[in-house]
TrEMBL record:
Family to which the UniProt record says this protein belongs: Belongs to the major facilitator superfamily. Sugar transporter (TC 2.A.1.1) family.
Pfam (any one): Sugar_tr
Xref: Gene3D superfamilies: MFS general substrate transporter like domains (1.20.1250.20)
The protein's name: Major facilitator superfamily (MFS) profile domain-containing protein
Length: 253
């Protein structure tokens, strides 16, 4: 006997004639994530570009292999140290302010390396950008996570990894372009200052993390921030979840 399908309800009928559509999010969320992950691009660029500049630097300043090793590893060492304290810095001054501070440090480090007139100046420049790398490697994912809606949070956080890889790729391309130029290594290392300036200027218009604002008992500001990055005034439920989450953290500690 054929089955009776007259009472079955299709997906379109069950949803009032329309298929369920992905939730749309305001543009500022994607802009925020892109501006923040410029720090990841700088991370990748400064890590990769030194490999292309090494040979030119060695000839320019007649460096020993030991000095080359110091110049290369100093950024990694500084990054390791500052990554350990980046959480304290971000909690004290805010995620946004910490990222802006790192952008300034990136710019200073790139400028110092670009005008370096000796090995010690190069070393100082590398340590400076290493400090910035240590800060952004920890603070950028936290900032993006705390500002993002739950349904696209993972997607936006992975942008940081993408931008790190992109930064390494760009460093390889620019190293090839500037390899044959006089003082090409100065362009390679000095260009790291440009994205730092861009990121700093972008962050002037971006909000602080609402979670950090709640941590500092700035509830009205947190609500205003949520309304801005969610493009709705209905944020009380999310704000309450943040408050409860922080209270549970305090109890656990």
């Amino acid at each position: 006997m054929p089955s009776d399908t007259s009472n079955r309800v299709g997906p379109a009928e069950a949803t009032g004639g329309e298929q369920a559509r992905p939730k749309k999010h305001p543009t500022i969320i994607y802009l925020l994530a892109m501006c923040a992950t410029v720090g990841g691009a700088l991370f990748g660029y400064d890590t990769g570009i030194i490999n292309g500049a090494n040979l030119l630097i060695k000839d320019e300043f007649d460096l020993t292999d030991a000095w080359i090793e110091h110049i290369v590893s100093s950024a990694v060492g500084a990054a390791a140290v500052f990554s350990l304290v980046s959480g304290v810095i971000a909690d004290a001054i805010g995620r946004k302010t910490a990222i802006m501070a790192a952008a300034v440090v990136f710019t200073i480090g790139g400028f110092v390396m670009g005008i370096a007139n000796g090995k010690w100046m190069l070393l100082i420049g590398r340590i400076t950008v290493g400090a910035a790398i240590g800060i952004v490697s920890s603070v950028v994912p936290v900032y993006v996570s705390e500002c993002s809606p739950a349904d696209i949070r993972g997607r936006l956080i992975t942008l940081n990894q993408l931008f790190i890889t992109l930064g390494i790729w760009v460093s390889a391309m620019l190293a090839a372009i500037f390899q044959e130029l006089d003082d090409g290594w100065r362009y390679m290392l000095g260009l790291a200052a440009v994205p730092g300036v861009v990121q700093f200027l972008c962050f002037l218009a971006l909000p602080e993390s609402p979670r950090w604002q709640v941590m500092k008992n700035k509830i009205p500001k947190a609500k205003k921030t949520l309304m801005q990055i969610r493009a709705t005034s209905d944020v009380n439920e999310e704000l309450e979840r943040i408050v409860q989450s922080l209270e549970e953290e305090k109890k656990t500690k």
